[in-house]
Write a structure and sequence with these properties.
With 128 residues, the chain is of the alpha/beta class. 41% of the residues lie in helices and 18% in strands. The mean pLDDT is 93.
Length: 128
């Protein structure tokens, strides 16, 4: 299981993705933006999207809130990286539990997919 946990997305853009050992041309990123729905200032996520586009990363966004386990499995089927963005940790955790993303994530990690969490995305992997 490969995990990369960071306090913010800036580190990931500057250093983190390079630590994965996956060429940028082979990265297929499932970018979970759910936690950002509960914050007022979205500049951090807009900047992250811009940098990802500029660097040519292949990423597709998903809001996991209201999704079924099957929808989540289907979305991540062709991705090799799961990046859960920061924002409101409690809002994200609620969506994780209600959608079943917590159990889906275990399956995806067992398949060898890489997990990247920034801020709230890192916190949700903690035991409490």
């Amino acid at each position: 299981m490969k995990l990369l946990l960071a306090s913010n997305g800036g580190f990931l853009m500057d250093h983190g993705y390079n630590l994965l050992g996956i060429p940028a041309s082979e990265m297929k990123i499932g970018y979970v933006t759910t936690a950002s729905k509960a914050v007022d200032d979205l500049r951090y996520i807009e900047n992250h999207r811009r940098v990802m586009r500029e660097r040519g990363y292949d990423f597709h966004e998903i809001d996991i809130e209201g999704k079924s386990k099957q929808e989540l499995h289907d979305f991540f089927a062709d991705k090799n990286i799961i990046h859960v963005e920061g924002g409101n940790t409690f809002y994200l955790l609620k969506a994780v539990k209600e959608s079943g993303f917590d159990t889906v994530l275990k399956d995806l990690l067992a398949q060898g997919k890489v997990y990247i969490g920034s801020s709230a995305g890192a916190y949700i992997l903690c035991p409490t």
